[in-house]
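Project outcomes to date are best conveyed with an example. Our students and postdoctoral researchers have been running inverse folding experiments weekly, and each run begins with a structure described purely in tokens. The record below, which covers 446 residues, was selected by the lab manager from last quarter's runs and is presented without edits.
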């Protein structure tokens, strides 16, 4: 691998991986999942999964990528050849690459909506902004053409950057946009706490309520942990291929995980005070929650329009730095396999993703009634990817590094203190794998 393909400096990998992790999953999905799954019970399981499963799986993905220095599929292939393992391990990469494409197909629909909100300026003098906001979203979602337009725009942006090359395309831009985004979301959280109902929010998020802890909540919380950390499908593995040789992986993983969790919780604190203080907003609104809630907060804010525009621009960029990591594993693999121009590959993949995305778009409107096993297209795809494909990927990644590869490989590539290695190794071999197995069985048979 040439030097131009290694991230410049240690912080670039952290920022790129954090850019992948922090996205709609934190700002859009986390709040609505918490809202629809009973609050604190979900949050507690989520935090547990982040630590117990997320940490070891993310570290495993990075070291596989770093060892292989190729696309996830070919890094796995290289490992299986070098360590004389079963050739089937590369299919773990194939599973991930497909998961990425499927996730991107609906991710881009919501990212498109987020981007369209840059231009959604509320008229002044509204009597009931919450009602206006919910009506606006419903009529937007009822129009397939509008959704298709924004979905297309977002796919084009994603393909453009990935076609240009991830290292060149995002290496530089993430390093200054991410910090601005963090500051911004913290500011909104502070503002919402001041104008909204922060007491109910904190109670809802953190007061343990184990009666809400159904198997379905556990499964969803685990799925959300995978989704939010971008693990289980090779995105982090693909980025690991560009990590500088001497970067400390333990510290890196910890920073990414802390950052990601922090942003999700702050997003909750930005959204819920507004919901709790507005009877027109529903806590269990589902995917529309932030689109109905945030504009209401901005509406009451002095210079709110300017803040709203800025916020949705930054959110779109955060979504973009995640969506490119969804497309990267498949693209890098095709590039190696067919020795074709990246630009041509992303055009083909982009078209495919665009078409699959139509299914999710129609789930809001003309295809609402079409259901398989009680799920509409979007719900089904979301369930398949988050609750089945990502955990399955994570399970096999943990199996590979925890049980199949020699311990010495892990010691050498992880390069962390012995006192830290021991609990991590134990957790990888027993707790993470056990927990993932549970979620997997739950989601498959519930
Ligand atoms: N983690 C991203 C987010 O929170 C989504 C994502 C999932 C990205 C899986 C890559 C892989 O928005």
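After processing, the design step wrote out the following sequence:
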């Amino acid at each position: 691998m040439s030097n131009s393909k290694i991230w410049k400096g240690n912080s670039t990998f952290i920022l790129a991986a954090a850019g992948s992790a922090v996205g709609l999953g934190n700002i859009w999905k986390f709040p609505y999942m918490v809202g629809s799954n009973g609050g604190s019970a979900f949050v507690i399981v989520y935090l547990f999964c982040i630590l117990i499963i997320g940490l070891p799986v993310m570290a495993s993905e990075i070291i596989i990528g770093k060892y292989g220095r190729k696309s996830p599929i070919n890094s796995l292939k290289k490992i299986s050849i070098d360590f004389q393992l079963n050739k089937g391990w590369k299919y773990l990469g194939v599973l991930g690459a497909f998961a990425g494409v499927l996730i991107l197909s609906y991710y881009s629909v919501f990212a498109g909506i987020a981007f369209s909100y840059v231009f959604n300026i509320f008229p002044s003098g509204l009597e009931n902004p919450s009602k206006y906001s919910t009506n606006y979203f419903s009529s937007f979602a009822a129009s397939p053409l509008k959704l298709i337009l924004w979905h297309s725009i977002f796919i084009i942006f994603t393909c453009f950057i990935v076609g240009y090359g991830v290292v060149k395309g995002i290496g530089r831009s993430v390093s200054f946009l991410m910090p601005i985004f963090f500051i911004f979301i913290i500011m909104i959280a502070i503002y919402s706490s001041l104008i909204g109902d922060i007491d109910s929010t904190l109670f809802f998020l953190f007061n343990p309520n184990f009666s809400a802890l159904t198997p379905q909540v556990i499964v969803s919380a685990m799925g959300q942990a995978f989704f939010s950390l971008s693990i289980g499908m090779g995105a982090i593995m693909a980025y690991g291929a560009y990590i500088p040789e001497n970067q400390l992986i333990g510290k890196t993983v910890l920073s990414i995980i802390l950052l990601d969790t922090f942003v999700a919780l702050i997003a909750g604190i930005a959204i819920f005070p507004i919901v709790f203080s507005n009877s027109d907003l529903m806590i269990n609104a589902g995917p529309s929650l932030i689109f109905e809630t945030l504009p209401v907060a901005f509406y009451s804010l002095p210079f709110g329009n300017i803040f709203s525009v800025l916020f949705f621009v930054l959110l779109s960029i955060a979504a973009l730095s995640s969506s490119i990591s969804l497309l990267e594993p498949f693209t890098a693999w095709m590039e190696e396999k067919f020795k074709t121009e990246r630009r041509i590959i992303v055009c083909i993949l982009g078209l495919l993703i665009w078409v699959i995305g139509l299914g999710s778009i129609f789930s809001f409107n003309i295809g609402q009634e079409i259901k398989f096993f009680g799920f509409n297209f979007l719900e089904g795809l979301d369930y398949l990817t988050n609750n089945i494909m990502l955990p399955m990927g994570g399970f096999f990644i943990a199996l590979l590094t925890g049980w199949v590869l020699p311990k010495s490989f892990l010691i050498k590539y992880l390069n962390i203190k012995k006192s830290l290695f021991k609990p991590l190794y134990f957790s990888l071999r027993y707790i993470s794998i056990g927990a993932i197995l549970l979620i997997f069985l739950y989601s498959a048979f519930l």
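The pocket of phenylalanine is lined by residues 20-21, 23-26, 103, 227-228, 230, 233, 235, 322, 325-326 (CB under 6 Å). The domain at 3-445 is CATH 1.20.1740 (Amino acid/polyamine transporter I). The training component of this project remains on track.
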